[in-house]
Amino acid sequence: MALNSTIQAVTDRIIARSKASRAAYLARMRKAGEDGPARAHLSCSNQAHAYAAMGADQDRLATTPAPNLGIVTAYNDMLSAHEPFGSYPPRIKEAARRLGATAQVAGGVPAMCDGVTQGQPGMELSLFSRDTIALAASVALSHNTFDAVVMLGTCDKIVPGLVMAAGAFGHLPMIFLPGGPMTSGLSNDEKAKVRKAYASGEIDRAALMAAEMAAYHGPGTCTFYGTANSNQMLMEIMGLHLPGAAFVTPYTPLRDALTDAGVEAILGQTGLGRDYRPLCDILDERAFVNGIVGLMATGGSTNLVLHLPAMARASGIHLTPQDFSDISGVVPLLARVYPNGLADVNHFHAAGGMGYLIAQLLDAGLLHEEVNTVAGPGLARYTSEPFLDGDTLTFRAAPLAPENDRILRPHTDPFQRSGGLQRLTGNLGEGIIKISAVAPEHRLIEAPARVFHTQDAVVAAFKAGELAQDTIIVLPFQGPRANGMPELHGLTPTMSVMQDRGFKVALVTDGRMSGASGKVPAAIHVSPEAMGDGPLARIRDGDVIRLDAEAGTLENLAPDFDTRTPDRPDLSANHTGLGRELFSIFRANAAPATEGASPLFPEAEIGDDT
Question: Where is the Dihydroxy-acid/6-phosphogluconate dehydratase C-terminal domain (predicted)?
Answer without folding.
Answer: 407-597
